[in-house]
Amino acid sequence: MNEIYENDSYESTMGERDMLRVGGWDRVALIGKTLFKCLGVGGSQTRSNHAGLGRNCAVMWICILVLFCAMPSTVRGQSESEWTSLKRDVQQRLGKLNSLMHDAETRGICTDYASVSRHVITTYLMAAQHDRDHVEEVRKIFQQVWWIKKTDPKEADMLPWNELRACIDVADHAIAELETQLTGKITLASPPDFSKGTVTLNSAYYRLDGQPVFPHSLVWLPADPDYMQAWGHLGGAFYQLTNLRSDGTVAVRTLEGLTKQTEVDVSYNAAPLVHLLGHTPAKWMTQTHPEISQGKRNFTKYDIDSSLVRDWLNRLCEAVLPVVAQAAGGQPQVHLLANEPHFATKKRGWLAENGVSEITMQKYRQWLGAKYSTVDTLNRFYGKSYAAFSEVTIEMPIDPALRGTAVWYDWCRFNMDRVNDWFAFLKETTQRHDPERSPVSIKTLGHTLGSSDRDGGMDIEFLTRLQDIPGSDLRVVPQGATFYGKNEDGRDTETGWASRYAYLWVDQSMVLDFTKSLCPDRSFYDSEWHGFGTVSWRHYRLNRQYVRSAMWLAFSHGMGLINPWLWGRKIDGSLSDKADHIGELATQPIAVDAYGRVMKELNAHAEDVVAAVPSRRDILIFYCEDSAIQDAQYMEHVTEIYEALKLTNRKIGFVTATDLENAAEASRVIVIPPTAFISDDSFAILKKLPSSGAHMVVFEGERCFQKNELGTQRSDAGELAVDADMRVAPVLEMTKEFERTLPSAAAMPLEIKVTDESGQKAYGVFVSQSVHPQTGVVTIVLNNVGNSIRRVRLRPVANKSGTMIDMIEKRRVGGTIEMKPCDVRLLKANLQ
């Protein structure tokens, strides 16, 4: 038998999966090696018959063709002409878009949205060329992440081609929209121009010349007017302990740099100016006082209980903030006190192995002394026989097996108290040295509320109330995302969020609802929004519908200003090597175009978006910090109950023991998740609520209130009178039970029903109605976060009639609207 056929078995050792792991010339070499081995090149040749030789020659020509096709696009013979042709296609569309924009401008038609697309196309024509010309640099940047082998190995090589093809999509979308505008079929509202006017903070929202607006930008966005017109006008400076010299001063050069940066921002009318305080100590600090590194964490690289560090922070703020404030010249500012603070202390917690300092342990013993007064009292709760508080020890990291005991509760509560004290110090210090006493914010980790962990020192209620502008870095995750190594929740297509929704929305909405319940008159700042990607997931082909829906959901829930992660390109188009950029925003023209456009849309309709945020919440979930600390399942149940309630389209909020008495009214519903641990004081307040007339719903009442916060058994657990006792169940089951159990909602002007395509009742479209107090006009926001088509039927109540307008496109619509996944509608109804 001819050797070609004898070597057929070799093909099975080189499968498709192996081919995907190599790229460029490596792939060519591998194919060549395989094919030439099949031909017998380099080995003995069979010469017994001419038929075999002929067959070999035929296969040789096939090999040459296959090798040609396998070559990277940068080396194939037609690649340059193909590239030139692709660029020409983009440039021609850009020319057509420019022409249409000129026609529209001469007719007074809004071109603000098209201008975003024009900037995106112009930017990526340069960026794609740079990526192609510097493919080795792109490959090195992509190689920075540990999960590189989980991605398509051709991603770096194909990046510039994909970017230009995406530009064609951006251009076609912009051209089609502008042509529709020019024919008069739709009319788009003009957004405010952030490059001019006066920005002020008025209660829960910023205002531009008196009108509510949503300031925005992208992390690392260049301070360039074209970029800012497309993607936002936030500004600010970064300063940290490394700027402080050993003599307690900050170098003149550093201050001049901060001044110049601030003045440039002001010249572009960037507002607010967000000043991030960094917590990396200078080398001289750790060399002179190495003890300050005890208890350090990822972004706070020192002992927060050290008086030395606090003195240095005071000196830093004293040197920097008056200078920056003077350069700001009255432009609104924000002090971002910390980036993703965390102080995990349980075993296997994030950097918990760094432990805590002896200073911290001394504070802990003093804290225990103040709480228990006598060591005998402490010993009764701890089951110990300490002779004095000074003998108290606790192994770090703390063992999670202690959860539910007095030892666990006291440590977690102490850790929160010391972190609260640190943040209170940071707020007081920054505002004392800022002549404007600008508001403060904290970029808390977005999962802090929903996480079952409470050993990290983050007292959610205290910190929410401490901040003048509460903040976080929230996440939203679309269908089709690839998860890397952690946070792979909801991926079960039968039971998880992916079985119901177009994207994971619960994390973001729950934090916003919690925050706006506690502090309804304060703005909310997401300084690192993770809807485009994060360390745990990426999506390589984000679509504009998802981006629009997720952003509308954020702002209709109370988001005030936003700064998504991440713009990782320099002005020359090159990728920054400070991030990996695989699937990030800087490699996705469609997504970044959608972001710029939707922020203009939201700002053009800001008053209506603001009105969609409930001013009063009729159903309040009781959040109990005691159970959150002691019960590992508590927050899982809270999250599931919250999700089920949200699907009813009622006005959902949260309440803590602090506000419980004031929140209880006859028209309100208090929902109590399974709450096994609760302090005597909080339980006493709960027991008074039924007399106020509030409708009380408890989950698994037999499990509730059995223990106090220290884990001591309670004798009066069953003394709370409730109106309903529900079971924790799958989300949709609880939603239906809520609809049967809860008292009817207050009447609204429109009856709104959501069904699937077959006409059956369905869920997944978030609905809000608000009535203008003077005109009576009804504003409706519809957002389909479900993964299926929904039909929404809107009918006036009380025998009224009227017209309904789609405010985005300024056209009349009927009373039944079909919504695809991620569809958003802003409607106004004038009822008679």
Describe this structure in words.
The protein is of the alpha/beta class. The protein contains 25 helices and 27 strands. The strands form seven sheets. Strands 4-5-6-7-8-12-14 form a seven-stranded parallel β-sheet. It has a five-stranded parallel β-sheet with strand order 16-15-17-18-19. A five-stranded antiparallel β-sheet has the order 21-22-27-24-25. Helix 10 links the parallel strand 4 and strand 5. Helix 6 runs antiparallel to helix 19 (589-604). The protein starts with a helix and ends with a strand. Residues 1-55 and 66-78 have low confidence and may be disordered.
What topology emerges from the helices and strands here?
Layout: H1 3-6, H2 16-20, H3 24-39, H4 50-70, H5 79-106, H6 112-133, H7 135-142, H8 155-182, E1 199-202, E2 205-208, E3 211-213, H9 225-231, E4 238-240, H10 252-267, E5 273-278, H11 283-288, H12 307-328, E6 333-339, H13 358-372, H14 375-382, H15 406-433, E7 440-445, H16 460-466, E8 471-473, E9 477-478, E10 482-483, E11 503-504, H17 506-518, E12 525-529, E13 537-538, H18 544-555, E14 561-564, H19 589-604, H20 606-612, E15 619-622, H21 625-630, H22 634-646, E16 652-655, H23 660-663, E17 669-672, H24 680-688, E18 695-699, E19 724-726, H25 731-741, E20 750-755, E21 765-771, E22 778-784, E23 790-796, E24 802-806, E25 811-812, E26 816-819, E27 824-831
Parallel strand pairs: 4-5, 5-6, 6-7, 7-8, 8-12, 12-14, 15-16, 15-17, 17-18, 18-19
Antiparallel strand pairs: 1-2, 2-3, 9-11, 10-13, 20-23, 21-22, 22-27, 23-26, 24-25, 24-27
